[in-house]
Model the fold of this input.
Amino acid sequence: MARITAGVGSSHVPAIGAALDLGKTAEPYWKRVFDGFEFSKKWIAEEKPDVVILVFNDHATAFSLELIPTFAIGAAAEFKPADEGWGPRPVPVVKGHPELASHIIQSVILDEFDLTIVNKMDVDHGLTVPMSLMFGQPEAWPCPVIPLAVNVVQYPPPTGNRCYNLGKAIRKAVESFDKDLKVMIFGTGGMSHQLQGPRAGLINSEFDNAFLDGLVQDPESLAKIPHLDYMREAGSEGIELVMWLIMRGALDDEVEQLHRFYTVPASNTAVGHIILKNKAA
Ligand code: DHB
Ligand code: FE
Done:
């Protein structure tokens, strides 16, 4: 049987990818950010997941205002790094896991979550930056990835509660896949940030840290946070945090926090990172 062993939360700031790709990781501004992932890179290299389900958002790259799926799951054999205006990042092509993805699609849709099935999609910084932070700069990514894209770009995004419950449905799906696979789930984006308007540059460390606390101790309360609270407290792009609730919903009610990191700023945001392990795993 496949099982979900751990969840990872991570910001996906595009400038982090640029810092890596341009060899700036030793600069003090960036070293502070990358140091927070040193534990994580060693940990995941030892844990060796067989598959990662990576929850992210597409930033009008593969999709546009012409087509806005609320939840879109990638069932392709591979996903190319997207050209976001400066050429694709020099990172490996992401290999998918069509067999597990198809199983999740069947289980989750029949569980009444209407996923969009994606058989071709280029993946932007929302997916590639967390991959780089966790796996470094290998020739090939060490495991297949199932991308799950969530609309947090165009109102209305899904509620935190819907995301949390989708996580639970994904867990049920994984646990009914009859191959022994060690699966991890990443929730990406966040933390507080606002990229435009009079409040551009907003960062709310108190909200972010309370969110990280809640992920460990009280995810049910986090799932009740309404959109307006994210907007007010965490800025317009802080809504990306609902994606972390898909990750959390896929884990046990009680989890162990293996690692936590928070730093301000990286580009316009706070960088948050957490690793949660299922106790039985
Ligand atoms: C920034 C952060 C994001 O999450 C994003 O998608 C784009 C830009 C930033 O802080 O610059
Ligand atoms: Fe983003």
